[in-house]
Amino acid sequence: MPDEELLTVPEGMARLRLGRSTVYDLIRSRRLPSVTIGRSRRIPASALREFISHRLAEAA
């Protein structure tokens, strides 16, 4: 995963067009994987893409 892009929570919020509380709820419930580096929470871009794909598949 060395070339993996890690997004901040605000970047994830912008890409998902969701609020801060909703994104943190998704992270807390483990529906949106994330990693902690020091005191910072990061969302792997691939996890965000998988989350969106999964939601699209559920909606179909």
How does this model look, in words?
- This protein has 3 helices and 3 strands.
- A hairpin with a 2-residue loop joins strand 2 and strand 3.
- The chain has helices at 9-16, 20-28, 45-59; strands at 6-8, 35-37, 40-44.
- It has 60 residues and is α+β, with helices and mostly antiparallel strands.
- It is 53% helix and 18% strand.
Give me some keywords for this one.
alpha+beta; globular; 60 residues; three-stranded antiparallel beta sheet
Quick summary:
This protein is 53% helix and 18% strand. With 60 residues, the protein is α+β, with helices and mostly antiparallel strands. The protein has a three-stranded antiparallel β-sheet with strand order 1-3-2.
What is this structure's SSE topology?
Blueprint: E1 6-8, H1 9-16, H2 20-28, E2 35-37, E3 40-44, H3 45-59
Antiparallel strand pairs: 1-3, 2-3
**Within the largest sheet, what's the order of strands?**
1-3-2
Shape: globular
Task: Please give the alpha-carbon distance between the first and last residues.
Answer: 31 Å
- The run of helices and strands is EHHEEH
How many distinct helices? 3
Helix content: 40-55%
Q: Round the mean pLDDT to the nearest integer and report it.
A: 94
